[in-house]
């Protein structure tokens, strides 16, 4: 009986975390649309505040020229954009390449102390009321700045989260197929989050804040974008989601490279839970707490552990019952799990053999990122996660 109870608890956690929350969110948004018909805020004609396009770069010589050209091509008055680059620690010629462009403001120091230290240092050079953060290896959609600015026309908006898009290729491997699908689903959930109440955090590829809301962040912070955006939400401001403001990048070159990112993100997620522990209190933060716990906390902690424990508990139930007939519910669920893991192993095999079989890549990616989450949790508590990014190789 005890195993049955554990089985259903784990089943509920997994279903709710990966599917159920999105379903409930969609239903609530549907009700809100009926009860409160949309009255989208239209910015007043000519609303074009000055903005700062803030980029931190560490040894990005292979990307910076493309990034600069993309920045100059964005559909917004050039005289209203401050192009600010922080290149701390770069020793591959990145600062020298950037200084060739007259319109760029480049600040550099030889010592590498991490991205968040560069952001904290660079904030004092910002002259505009709106800061748009973006990564050096991403390209922005042509109307991204204008879409972000339109959101800030609402004084209740303190932060705007842009959309991250993975450039798809016909011959994507497991990382490309899995990461692309993941971000499509994640973007859909973020859109619903933002429409219901507030998006749950921004992504470093593209997010923006009001300059006066920036709080200096601890220099050992791993997920700077998430901490910055959620602390603004804690102060009562909304995080708007702007899907037409997007940043594009290629997928990780393979799953092993993607694991580097996911392990770091998981470690940063645990750190975030401790640093934003007040957000776990729904009596104080209401809907935002529910969204934060459902969308992030469960994915970072309980769900990955539950995924692998679910297989073990399911196996024990079948073994003790002695019923291996797939007509039995618990046996059927066990066989379904085994098939999924077989697909994941096949995905690993085909990727190593460089054979493109996308039907196997998605389960392989899903299992891998949950495994990475567990490794990230362990790494955090061992104190072995560096604040400096180990950049994943991109396709």
Q: Keywords for this structure?
A:
single chain; about 400 residues; alpha/beta; eight-stranded mixed β-sheet; 13 helices; about 50% helix; globular
Please provide a written account of the structure:
- This protein is an alpha/beta fold.
- It has one domain (1-39, 154-395).
- 52% of the residues lie in helices and 13% in strands.
- The chain has 13 helices and eight strands.
- The chain has helices spanning 2-35, 64-72, 94-98, 115-122, 144-151, 174-196, 224-234, 255-275, 282-285, 287-300, 302-321, 329-352, 358-382; strands at residues 51-56, 81-86, 104-107, 130-135, 139-140, 157-167, 206-210, 238-250.
- It has an eight-stranded mixed β-sheet.
- Helix 11 packs across helix 12.
- The N and C termini lie far apart (49 Å).
- The relative contact order is 0.13.
How confident overall, as mean pLDDT? 89
> Which runs of at least 5 residues are low in confidence (pLDDT < 50)?
none
Question: How are the strands ordered across the major sheet?
Answer: 3-2-1-4-7-6-8-5
Number of helices: 13
Please tell me what the overall shape is: globular
Task: Report on the biggest sheet.
Answer: 8 strands, mixed
Beta-strand segment tally = 8
- H and E string: HEHEHEHEEHEHEHEHHHHHH
Strand content: 5-15%
Helix content estimate: 40-55%
Q: How far do the termini sit from each other?
A: 49 Å
Instruction: Return Rg in Å.
Output: 22 Å
Which structural category fits the helices and strands? alpha/beta
Number of domains: 1
């Amino acid at each position: 009986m005890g195993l049955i109870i554990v089985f259903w608890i784990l089943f509920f956690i997994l279903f709710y975390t990966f599917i159920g929350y999105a379903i409930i969110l969609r239903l609530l948004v549907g009700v809100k649309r009926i009860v409160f018909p949309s009255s989208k805020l239209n910015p007043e004609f000519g609303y074009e505040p000055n903005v700062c396009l803030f980029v931190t770069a560490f040894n990005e010589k292979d990307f910076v020229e493309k990034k600069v050209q993309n920045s100059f091509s964005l559909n917004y008055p050039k005289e209203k954009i401050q192009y600010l680059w922080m290149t701390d620690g770069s020793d591959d010629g990145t600062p020298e390449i950037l200084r060739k462009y007259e319109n760029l403001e480049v600040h550099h120091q030889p010592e590498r102390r991490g991205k968040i230290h560069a952001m904290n240092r660079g904030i004092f050079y910002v002259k505009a009321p709106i800061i748009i953060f973006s990564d050096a290896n991403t390209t922005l959609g042509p109307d991204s700045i204008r879409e972000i600015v339109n959101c800030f026309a609402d004084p209740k908006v303190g932060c705007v989260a842009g959309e991250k898009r993975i450039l798809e290729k016909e011959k994507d491997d497991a990382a490309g197929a899995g990461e692309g699908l993941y971000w499509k689903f994640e973007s859909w959930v973020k859109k619903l989050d933002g429409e219901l109440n507030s998006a749950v955090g921004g992504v470093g590829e593209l997010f923006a804040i009001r300059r006066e809301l920036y709080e200096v962040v601890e220099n050992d912070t791993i997920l700077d974008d998430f901490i910055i955006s959620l602390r603004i939400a804690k102060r009562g401001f909304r995080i708007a989601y702007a899907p037409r403001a997007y940043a594009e990048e290629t997928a990780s070159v393979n799953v092993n490279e993607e694991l580097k990112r996911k392990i770091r993100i998981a470690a940063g997620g645990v750190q975030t839970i401790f640093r934003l522990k007040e957000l776990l209190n729904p009596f104080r933060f209401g809907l935002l707490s529910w969204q934060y716990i459902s969308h992030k906390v469960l994915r970072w902690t309980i769900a990955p552990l539950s995924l692998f424990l679910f297989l073990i508990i399911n196996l024990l139930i079948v073994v003790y019952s002695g019923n291996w007939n797939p007509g039995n519910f618990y046996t059927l669920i066990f066989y379904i799990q085994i098939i999924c893991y077989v697909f994941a192993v096949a995905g690993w095999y085909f990727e190593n053999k460089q054979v493109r079989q996308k039907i196997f890549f998605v389960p392989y990616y899903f299992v891998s990122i949950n495994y990475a989450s567990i490794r990230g949790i362990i790494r955090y508590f061992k104190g072995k996660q560096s604040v400096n990014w180990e950049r994943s190789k991109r396709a």
